[in-house]
Amino acid sequence: MLKILVGSKNPVKINAAKTIFQQYFPEQEIHCEGCHAPSGVPDQPLGELDTRLGAQNRVDYLKAHFDADFYCAMEGGAAKFDYGAATFAFVVIANKQHSSVSRSCNLPLPEKIYSALEQGEELGHVMDRVFNTTNIKQKGGAIGLLTNNLATRESSYTQALTLAMAPFIHSELYS
Questions:
Q1: Nearest to residue 11, comparing CAs of 124, 153, 149?
Q2: Are 86 and 78 spatial neighbours (Cβ–Cβ below 8 Å)?
């Protein structure tokens, strides 16, 4: 049995991690659970550095406090790039020997939504207000709302986690 700890109690993040580990290790029984792990960054990180640091801090916390085969964390953030504002996520996967960082795709954000983030609001709360939804961050997320659910928060995490697993699956190439 593989024990996977996710640095969040959010079911979207837990499901994404469980899906990936089941795909990479189909012969194994997967026990995947979410744990509170502080990010050490603002609730709505702005910029790639804080977003990546939030995911790394969560994994570091899990490794220091729990025993598992793999630790993973996903941190959603937003930034303004020269081509416009976007939201994205960083993911970190680690075991006792190695760590891997990956990043999701960018979802372009409307300027009025990014402005609310700059004022200190969290993306999920802004999206709930704009789209009249409730707790969208534990469902399809902003990406689901803005793509008519052709992509979701979970699918974005799933893709980034899939990529972050490459150094574990082909460790001989990454050592």
A1: 153
A2: yes
pTM above 0.85, yes or no: yes
Question: Does the pLDDT of residue 139 top 90, yes or no?
Answer: no
* Sequence ranges of the domains in the chain: 2-108+152-174
* Top CATH class, 2-108+152-174: alpha beta
Q: Which of 56, 72, 60, 50 is nearest to 165 (CA)?
A: 72
Rg (CA), the chain: 16
Classify burial at 69, counting beta carbons within 10 Å of its beta carbon; exposed 0-12, middle 13-18, buried 19 or more: middle
Q: Is 67 annotated as a binding residue?
A: yes
Task: Show the CA angle centred on residue 93, arms to residues 145 and 150, nearest 5°.
Answer: 20
Q: Could you tell me how many residues make up the chain?
A: 175
